[in-house]
Amino acid sequence: MTAAASIAPLYARLLLTGAAGGLGRELRPRLKAHCGVLRVSDIADLGAAAPGEELMPAALEQADAVHALLDGIDAVVHLGGVSVEGPFGPILQANIVGVYNLYEAARKHKVRRIVFASSNHVTGFYRQDEVIDATMPMRPDGYYGISKAFGENMAQFYFDRYGIETVSLRIGSSFPEPVDRRMLATWMSFDDLERLVVASLSAPVVGHSVIYGMSDNATTWWDNTPARHIGYRPQDSSEPFRADREARQPRIDPTDPVARYQGGGFCIKGPFD
Questions:
Q1: Catalytic site residue from 103, 143, 144, 232
Q2: Confidence band, pLDDT 50/70/90 cuts, at residue 9
Q3: How far lies 54's CA from each of 8, 121, 170, in Å?
């Protein structure tokens, strides 16, 4: 049984981009319970279609392909694009040109709602001794964070101008378990990821809302109070992993940028020339 279950499908046809990626592979079987047909897309191998699925590979930087991808779609869970820090060129094409193509296609096909996988790296240069919320100014920690900041601004514009609702998820660290001390604050279980996405799809009114993606961790740098209307209530916590992770990293150097800033290692990646 999945972490969240629907009595009836939320949408007739739901699109999941980035379906071959790490989080896409987790959400793909879970989202089928919340729609009549799940259309999955990526540029990587998607495997065989499961019952109730449509496979439709598409490169996000190709406008015509994205336009076709959104034909007949009611809502989108957009995980596609470059998901790590790196050179600007590929990030530009997949995450900036790609998100423009997605929103233009959504406008033309009258898509009702988009759940946009943003990132905590939109605010990665806040310090780890600060608690922030989504109303505070963006402080991206790299090209990847900048691209996600662009995506959030695009979402706000398309809501203000065209009424397309978006929930931007500033995802922390969604893995089977936290791998280091930083992730004791940023970790989100796969079950909580599902809860967050389904809440974002099912909340009656969202406008453009921004929410941090994290489990119910004892230590956190993010306050989700401004997004309580989404209805996300995490049920997991990084606390059971604390003793082991602290034993693995008994000392933290507060002068190390990886330990000083919320973005961790992303804050020191590059230059890439």
A1: 144
A2: confident
A3: 20, 32, 27
Residue in the block written with tokens 């699925």: 53
C-alpha–C-alpha distance, residues 208 and 168, integer Å: 7
Residue 227 to residue 208: CA distance in whole angstroms: 10
Q: Find, among 82, 85, 115, 120, the residue nearest to 213 by Cα.
A: 120
For residue 164, report the phi and psi dihedrals to the nearest 5 degrees: -80, 120
Catalytic residue check, 126: no
Burial of 64 (0-12, 13-18, 19+ CB in 10 A): exposed
Domains of the chain in start order, with CATH, are 11-268 (3.40.50.720)
pTM over 0.90: yes
Measured between alpha carbons, how far is 189 from 230 in angstroms, rounded to an integer?
Answer: 18
Residues 175-202: tens digit of each pLDDT: 999 999 999 999 999 999 999 999 999 9
